[in-house]
Amino acid sequence: MFFSQPHSQRQRRNFLFWILVTISLLVMFQCGKKEPEEPVVAVVGNRTISLTSFQRGYLPVILYGDKFDSPETRVQTLDYLIGDKLLAQEAEKIHLDTLPILKHVRRVAEHKAMARHLYDEWVREKISVPTEEELRQAFERINKQLFIRHLFAPSAEAADSLYALLESGRMTFEEIASRIYSDSLLASNGGALGWLEWGDLDENLENVAYEAPVGSFTKPVRSQYGWHILRVDDYKRQMIVSEDDFQQKKEFLKNRIYERREAVVSKQVMNEFMEAQNVRFDREITRPVFNAIIARRSSDETLPPEEQLGSPEREFATLEDELLPYLDQMLVTFAGEGWTVREFLDRLPEMDRRHFYGNLYVGLANMIRDELLGREAKARGYDQKPDVVEEVQDREDKLLSQLYLQSLYDTLTITEEIVTGFYEENWRQRYHGPDSLWLQEILVKNKDLADSLMYRLRSGANFEEMARRYSKRSRLRGKSGDLGWQVGGQTNFDQLYEAALKVQHNVPVGPVETADGWSIVRYTQQRRYPLPLDSIREKVRQDVENYRQAVVRNEALTKARSAYDIDRHDDVLNLIDEER
To answer: Which of 94, 101, 272, 520 has its CA 20 to 30 A from that of 316?
Structure first.
C-alpha cells in the first residue's frame, strides 16, 4: 500500500492533473516536509486545520468528485472539514473516541504517514536525476516506434538455452515462441508485442531494443520480470523534429524518466526488505482460519473508502468463538517473531479491502510489511513528525465525525406514512413518468416546402390553419394537425415527440425527416403523471433516509458551531495559487 506507484496511464494523468490544477504535492508526498510555521486555514475548538491538512482533504474532491478547482470549491471543502472537526469533538463528549476501531484507524493512518518519510529516505534519495545526454536520447526515442517480438525466460540459464537454439538455426524465433508461451496469442504470433513507443518497456529492455539492428535477435537481457530475447522487425520514425521540440518536451521527459526509475527502485527496495523478513505461513493453520473468514465475509464490496476500515470487525464479531481451538496457534512468522491467530484477528480490520475480498495471503503479508515499516519509521522518530501527528488526527477526526452522525442516524425512524408523504410532496420533481404531450403536426413530402412553411410559421403564420391547408397525413387531412396525447416510450411518433420536448410549448420545431416525409411539430399542452409508488418504494425510502440524515447533520453542525470557537482564514487558501 505504501510503496506502490501509479502504473496505468489513467493514474499518471490523474497525478499530473493534480499537480497542474491544485498545488504541488511536495508538501504532502515528499517526506511530509513543511515550513517551520505552516499557514493555518482554520482553528476549530481545540483542533487546527493547516494548509497541508486542507490539501489532504481537497485532493479527492478535485480528482474523484465532480468539481473543479475554484475559490468556491475551496471554501466548500473548508466548510466540510470544519464540520468534521466540530462533530469529532462532539463525539469525544460521548466517549466515541474509546471505541476499539479508533485503535486500528490510528495505526493505519500513522503507518501510511510515516511511510512517506521512509520512502523519501529509501527510494527518492537513490534515484539519479536524468542527464542532458539521457534527455536527448529519450527525445530521439519518443519519435521512433519499434515493432518488437520477444522470448521470455524465468532464469538466465533458460534464456541462454533459448539463445543457443536461435544461434544454431535449429529453430526460428517464431517456432520457439509457439513452444514456450501458454498465452495463445503470443504463441501464435511469434511473441509479437506489436508497435511499442518509448516508455512502454522496462528501461533495460528499451536500451537494448533501440540499439538493436532490424531483423536480428539480441542476447538475453534482464528486466525486473525475468530474462528476454528481443527482435526488432521494423521501426517508424518522426522525421521532422527541432531543438524547440526538444525544449518543449524536456520537462516531460525528465519527469517520465524519474518516474520510471522511481518505480523500479521502489519495487527493488520493497522486495529486498520483505525477503529479509523471512515471512512464513503455517498452511495447516491459515487454511481453516481463512476458510472461516471467506465463509463469513459480506458480499458487499462497494462500501466507500471511509467506511471500509472496520467493516470486517462488524462482520466477524463472533469469529473468535468459531476459531477458539486455533487462537493461540502461530499463524505466521517473520523477522524472528510471529502473530498468533488471535493477534491476526485483532488486526483484521486493518486489512486492505481489496485483499480482504481477494487474496488473504497477500493481505496478511501486506499487513506484516506495514507493521515492520512502521517499526522502522518509529525507530527514526518519524511518528513525532508534525505532519504525521496531524494526518493521524485528521483521519481519526473524520471517522469520529462519521461515528457521531451514525449515532444520531440510528435514532431515526422511517415509517410507511413518512415514505408516502415524501413521495406525494416530491413526485413532480423526482418520481414522474414520461411527460404526456398534445402534439400537432404539419406533414409535407418536400423539404423545400417544409422549410418555406417553417419560415412562415416563425413569421407569425397560424399553425392550425397551415396544417389544414398543407398537411398530407391522410387521417388528418383538412384538420388542424392534432396527433393527440403522446407519451414517451408509448408513441408511434418517437422522433416528433423527442423534437417537441426540446422546445417550449406552442413553439414549432422542424423540419424533421420521418418515414412519411418532412414534419413540423409542436406541443400545445403538457401533463405529468407520477410513477406508481409501489414500483419505486425502495428508492423513495432511500431518498427519505438521505434527506433526513442531511437534516440531522445540519442540525448537529448548527448546535456544534455555537459550542466552539471557529477562527477561519479563508485568505490562506489563496496561497495555493502562489505555490503553482
So the answer is: 94
CB 434 within 8 Å of CB 425 = no
- What is the reported pLDDT for 313? 53
Q: Is the model's pLDDT at 215 over the cut of 70?
A: yes
* Number of helical (H) and strand (E) elements in the chain, helices listed first: 25, 14
Q: Which candidate, 73, 77, 81, places its Cα nearest to that of 47?
A: 81
Residue 84 Cα distances to 159, 388, 530, 560, angstroms: 58, 19, 38, 11
Instruction: Check whether residue 265 and residue 381 sit in a common domain.
Output: yes
Instruction: Give the count of alpha carbons within 13 A of 159, CB side only.
Output: 20
Q: What is the dihedral of CA 455, 461, 467, 472, to 10 degrees?
A: -30
Closest-CA residue to 433 (of 562, 321, 532): 532
| 217 and 292 assigned to the same domain | no
Q: Do 327 and 348 lie in a common domain?
A: yes
For the sheet containing 227-237, what is the strand order? 192-196, 144-153, 227-237, 221-222
The domain total for the chain is: 3
Q: What is the pTM of this model?
A: 0.68
Q: Which of 452, 447, 522, 443 is nearest to 476 (CA)?
A: 443
Q: Is 211 inside a domain boundary?
A: yes
Residue 355: give the domain boundaries: 101-135+253-411
Question: What's the burial of 38, exposed, middle or buried (CB within 10 Å: 0-12/13-18/19+)?
Answer: middle
Least confident of 150-154, 175-179, 240-244, 329-333: 240-244
Residue 86 pLDDT exceeds 70: yes
CATH number at residue 216: 3.10.50.40
Cell triple for 67 = 468539481
Strand 47-50 with 221-222, pairing: unpaired
Cell numbers 513507443 label which residue? 197
58: in domain:
no
Q: How far apart are the first and last CA of the chain?
A: 28
d(CA 177, CA 159): 12
Please indicate, yes or no, whether residues 261 and 344 belong to a single structural domain of this protein: yes
Residue type, 40: V
Whether residues 264 and 229 fall in one domain? no
pLDDT in tens, 383-402: 999 999 999 999 999 999 99
CB 360 within 8 A of CB 97: no
